[in-house]
Automatic annotation (TrEMBL):
Residues 259-278 are annotated as: Disordered. Transmembrane segments: none annotated. It comes from Streptomyces griseorubiginosus. This is Enoyl-CoA hydratase. Pfam families: ECH_1.
Length: 278
């Protein structure tokens, strides 16, 4: 039996096997990050960190993991755009830091579309499983913004600076299998097995030698927490400053307008919700 602790759009579920599940639970919006969702994610991450059990599982409801910032919430704010984007980034970054600093292992399960800030959120895990049908896309340059949620910090460390630059600058899309080959995720699994495989992995870790796992994780991340914290601050400053500029506001408006028109060839990204890419 599971016990829901928090509410929509992010929930905590505490399982009997000492797995604490942090669930993005707004599938109708692709688990996109507006201010309400980012603040809910921050609060739920801190709550989970205060009592993390033996392992934490980060997963999502619906067909997408997290399609990034909600552009419909960003658009039309004029001179207030940067202030709003900064508030979203700050809340999401507090969640990233809390998850990164967890003393117990963190397993992430990534289905479907994962874009922008959702990529950074996915990569914060110690063990990251992706569905074969998953699609990873940074998407920032398409709307005149820079990465947030730690994406520009995690990527060079995971795939190297050359591949990180390609992903960020060219907006390349990776499948779940691509992401495994590149070292972006631990492994890709069949779509129908993702949730079960992720929970099995988290459950096995929760049942393991807890003292040793905590000590090993501390060694793996020694000295990195402060560097991530400083980098998140710079990411938030950069994306907010650009969001106030005419280029980003024009590109966001054009992107939303294009998503509002039916296309004979389908959605341009092939993976992302029409309103959410950053």
């Amino acid at each position: 039996m599971t016990l829901p602790v928090s509410t929509e759009p992010v929930r905590i579920v505490r399982h009997p096997d000492r797995v604490v599940e942090l669930r993005l639970d707004d599938p109708g919006r692709g688990n996109a990050l507006d201010l309400r969702t980012a603040e809910a994610l921050r609060d739920a991450s801190r709550e989970a960190a205060a009592d993390p059990g033996g392992a934490v599982l980060l997963r999502s409801a619906g067909g997408s993991f997290c399609v990034g910032g909600d552009l419909r919430a960003f658009a039309g704010r004029g001179a207030e755009t940067g202030t709003y984007v900064r508030a979203v980034a700050d809340a999401a970054h507090a969640a990233i830091q809390a998850l990164y600093d967890l003393p117990v292992p963190l397993v992430t399960a990534v289905p479907g579309a994962t874009a922008g800030g959702g990529v950074g959120l996915a990569l914060v895990g110690d063990v990251v499983l992706a569905a074969r049908s998953a699609r990873f896309r940074l998407a920032y340059t398409a709307i005149g913004l820079t990465p947030d949620c730690g994406a520009s910090w995690f990527l060079p460390r995971l795939v190297g600076p050359r591949r990180a630059a390609e992903l960020i600058l060219t907006d390349r899309v990776l499948t779940g299998d691509d992401a495994e080959r590149w070292g972006l995720v631990s492994r890709s699994v069949d779509d129908g097995r993702l949730d079960a495989a992720a929970h099995e992995t988290a459950s096995a870790l929760a049942a393991g030698a807890g003292d040793a796992l905590r000590a090993a994780k501390s060694l793996l991340r020694a000295g990195d927490g402060d560097g991530l914290r400083r980098h998140l601050t710079e990411e938030a400053r950069s994306i907010a400053a650009l969001a106030d500029g005419p280029q980003a506001q024009r590109l966001m408006a054009e992107f939303l307008a294009a998503r509002g028109r039916p296309k004979a060839g389908g959605d341009r990204t092939g993976t992302l919700a029409p309103e959410s890419v950053s």
